[in-house]
Amino acid sequence: MATLDTQVIGQAGTTIAFSSAAGGGDKCVPGSDTKLLIKNGAGSSVTVTLGTPGKVDGDLDIQDRTRVVAAGAMDGIKVTDRYRDPVTGLASISYSSATSVTVAVIR
Predict the structure, then answer these.
(1) Which domain holds residue 57?
(2) Considering the entire predicted model, what is its pTM?
(3) Quick one: which of 10, 18, 33, 50 has the fewest CB in 10 Å?
């Protein structure tokens, strides 16, 4: 499990560097303008899940956010503070398959 660096997109633009998705999942620093970009180079769709550590009424888990990324497609998910783990301060990301999947975190 890797902690992905957040790349800041400057006014003049920025070349975004993608890295391989980790089979055991990744983490990133969430924020109001943070986004996770996912490129699926595999031959089938992949489901990306953002863990939601919060609870409702003290005991009901909030459902995790999932996003299906089609084969050969690129997609994005906002990673706001609602995904922040209160212990680590990071958001947890998991993949149904990390094969041929690359990711980048931007703001």
Answers:
(1) 20-106
(2) 0.92
(3) 10
